[in-house]
Structures are given as C-alpha cells and as structure tokens.
Amino acid sequence: MTENLGTTKMNYYAAIEAGGTKFNCALIRDDQHIVKQTRIATTTPEQTLNQVVDFFQPLQAQYTIESLGLACFGPICLDKQAENYGGITTTPKPHWANTPISRQLSKRLNLPVFFDSDVNGAALGEYLWGAAQQTNVAVYVTIGTGLGGGIIVNGQILHGLHHPEMGHMLIPSSVEQGHCPFHGGCLEGLASGTSMGKLWQQPTQTLDDTHEAWQLQADHVASFCHNLLVTLAPEKIILGGGVMQKSSLLTMIIEATQTKLANYLNLGRPMQEIIVEPALDQASGLLGALALAQGKGRHGIGLK
C-alpha cells in the first residue's frame, strides 16, 4: 500500500479503543488520518485478541508501526508495582476479569503498548483535538454498554490510587434496585444502556421518544453532572456513548442540571456551553488511543 504524502515523513501507530461490546482497531498516522480500521466483537479474550492480532500483523509487514495505544474498558490496573500492571481487573464483563491485555498484545505484536482506561483515552482525545481544547478541567463521560468517565486536569489525565470510576458514584433515585453486580443502584447500575434495558425490559434503542425512561435518565445523569460541577468545577462535561444518541436527551440533562443546582453556582457561561456532546463524534476513544501511542499518557510496557 502506497500513500502520497509528499516529502512529509509520517509515523504510524496502532490504536485500539477496547470496549465491552466491540474493539475499534485502527492504523493511524501522526496527523490523525486513519489509514485502515476495523471493529471486532468483544467475546472472549482469546477470540477477540486473536482477531486483533490478525488485523495488525499484516499491517506491520507494510508499515513501520511505532507503538500501540490501548484505551481499554476496565477497571484496568495502573499500579506499576502490581503483577497485573496494564491488565483488566474486576470487570463485570464475563471472561475478561484478570486478563493481562497490555502484556499479551505487546508480546504478540512485539510493540510497546501505552495504555489507560477507555474513558481516559477519550478524554485525552477530546482535550487535544475536540471539545475540551484549552480547558483546565474537563470530564469525558461515555454512557453506553457501561458508564464511565475520564478527567483531564491541566493537560494531564487524572490518576490517584486508581483511575476514576465515576460510573459507580452513588446518586439519589426513585428506582428501588439498580443493576450493577457490585453496587446495585450506582450510576452505572441505573443509567448505562445495559441497566436501562433491564429496568424497562426492552432494548434502549426501542424506547419511544416520549417514554418516561428518558426523563428518569435525564434526572440520573443530571445528578451526576451536579456532583461533577460542585466537586471538580469542570469547564466542559462531554457526554458521549450510544445512549446519548437519543434526540433531545442532552437538552433534558442540561435543563435538569440547572434545576438541581438551584442557582447556587455562578458559572459565568450558559450550561449548554459546559455540558456538551463530543466534538470528535464517535472517534474520541480511537484518537485518544492514538494520543496514548504517541506517549501523551503515563503508562506503558514493552518499551524498547
């Protein structure tokens, strides 16, 4: 495969947005141009990772790939002293708990792997090239199969004892029992697409626009946004993921958040400029994985 790049030398990177439903895999250039891309179903680690390797290995014969960026569903271990550093830990995703995913990919592809959580990767992508540019504090939230968030503070992904697991924040709700296997009625157990489907006993995408589910969803996410605003003071809260594709949901969340704040904070700008959709559309996570591959995160293994 030959590309007309003129005299400009481009570096090539492998990028993976590893989600609970699918792995988005791509070969991407320095300039964010996606050379080749595929989607692989998240089944078992053996099946999925075999297909990932089968996608990248032929590309390695055509391109010099510098490294692999992995933005992975989790929780994922970021403790450099831990045996499972770079691996998935206590995920509710069947078969994937304690999978040393970064080490396996590094060994099989003979590449350094730079990694972080999927939502931290998406937050980084939006900070560099999307809706969170020129912010001091920004939060990216994905509401889909699961629910999670990543935080950028002064240009750095926020880490502490672990990466943020904001989807497991406890919020008030009229729902008696949520569907998180660990916490029941946490945010993910109430407002992820999976939990909404269980609550209303039908797939989320089949819920009519006027269904009461959407007002309840807006209330749940607005409680979350309220908590983010009073704790982190973010300039941007970016709401992505499949559930947020529903028409009018973003507006409902903005209005409910304003109601919950009750004019307590002087934010200095309209709420619709703070709570926004991703500027990178569906590419936030994949471009975040590119940024990780370029060394713009903090974690990696197999470094040469």
Would you kindly provide a written description of the structure presented here, covering whatever features stand out?
With 304 residues, the protein is of the alpha/beta class. The chain has 2 domains: 12-120 and 283-301, Nucleotidyltransferase, domain 5, CATH 3.30.420; 131-279, ATPase, nucleotide binding domain (Nucleotidyltransferase, domain 5, 2-Layer Sandwich). 31% of the residues lie in helices and 20% in strands. The two termini are 27 Å apart. 45% of the residues are buried. The model has no long low-confidence stretch (mean pLDDT 94). GO terms for molecular function: ATP binding; fructokinase activity; metal ion binding. Its cofactor is Mg(2+). Keywords: ATP-binding, Carbohydrate metabolism, Kinase, Magnesium, Metal-binding, Nucleotide-binding, Plasmid, Transferase, Zinc.
Topology:
Layout: E1 12-18, E2 22-29, E3 34-41, H1 45-60, E4 65-72, H2 101-109, E5 113-117, H3 118-129, E6 137-143, E7 147-153, E8 156-157, H4 187-191, H5 193-200, H6 212-231, E9 236-240, H7 249-261, E10 275-276, H8 284-293, E11 300-301
Helix pairs in contact: 1-2, 3-8, 6-7
Keywords: ATP-binding, Carbohydrate metabolism, Kinase, Magnesium, Metal-binding, Nucleotide-binding, Plasmid, Transferase, Zinc
GO molecular function: ATP binding; fructokinase activity; metal ion binding
Cofactor: Mg(2+)
